[in-house]
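ugh finaly. both done.
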Amino acid sequence: MATLLFHLNNVPEDEADDVRQLLTDKNLDFYETHAGFFGLGVAAIWLHNDEQLPVARAIIDEYQAQRAVIQREHYDTLRANGEIPGFGGFILQHPFRFSIILVLILFVLTLTLMPFWQGL
């Protein structure tokens, strides 16, 4: 019976390719489904043989642990070089978006607190 192994929703294409390659290298029989045009299906990698699940899961877990370390180092390098903006950088890069978000926050706060202000 087919067994769900790996969801592909919001997974970068390079990571999905690496997982496919790892499974192929280990001769694990799998197939892939897509979410479809409206996104109602399950985008995932499935194993044909559910007895291979522990081996496949161990392979993917090891790969993801290594990838997490590499991605964290890459992020830290970009952050140290100033290539990833902080909060102030976000405001400077997107002043209009920040203004709209601030107005929406104030609007929601006003609606939320209005019953309390009327009682005063």
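ok and the 2nd:
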Amino acid sequence: MATISTDTPAKPLRQRMQHDMMMRGLLPRTQEQYIRHVRRFAAYLGRPPDMATAEDLRNFQIHQHESGASAGTINGAVSALRFLYTVTLRRRDLARGLVAMRRPHKMREVLSVEEAARLLEAAPGIKYKAALGVAYGAGLRVSEVAHLKVDDIDSTRMLIRVEQGKGGRDRNAMLSPQLLELLRMWWREGKRRGVMFPHGWLFPGRSYTDPISTRQLHRAVQEAAEVAGIRKRVGPHTLRHSFATHLLEQDVDIRVIQVLLGHAKIDTTAIYTKVSTRTIQAVASPLDRLTALIEGKTPPG
């Protein structure tokens, strides 16, 4: 029987699944995650996944919940196994029993403009200051920041080209004059250190042949927040949230923000209307209007 295994070379079932993902244009990162989830299921099952029953899948999901797996892990496994059983094995009957976990809706943490300035100023070195500046100044996802190349910076048109963003979509992000100057400062320093090369990574990792890791960027944000005395729970994505919220508070059209963020649906961008304090403050309370009418004044709003 064909089996997905951790051994190399790839076994027939794993290879077939990889080919199916490739033909459907799944990103390499997504392919790796799907294979990893299927491996875990195979290890739990103790036999090839193509021999699993509906009860096996149910018990695996129960096992994940009892083990304290996060909603992200559970839903990632659901996506991977749905692909395996729906596309590769053509067993929709098994895929139907998989249940995704509803994530609790939490208010997104957002920095004030003053806090964002303090955090960037406290970044550990010009490289991280420039990288975090891109996250806040252009609203890029942490993975998009990490995978930028020198050629992606278009100073003539004042754009940042984002290739293969979420969903495999390419887009242009904004490049402000201040961000361009910050990137040029890093370019000069990177050249001096001998880690910056034409057509290479804009933010090299420990080796100039590899991009900086998202983990390094997370660590840099947390270190900067501590130095800046920011007590909010922050990460690189907080800078992206702050970018969108601050644009909304500047009365930038939400459809423009949608394009800049690379959202496929306006509903995703609309989430930021819930965290924009200035949007809330701009609304006149019905109590204020009522009080004004009682006192014979012109109602606000």
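summary for the 2nd one i guess: The first helix runs from residue 12 to 23.
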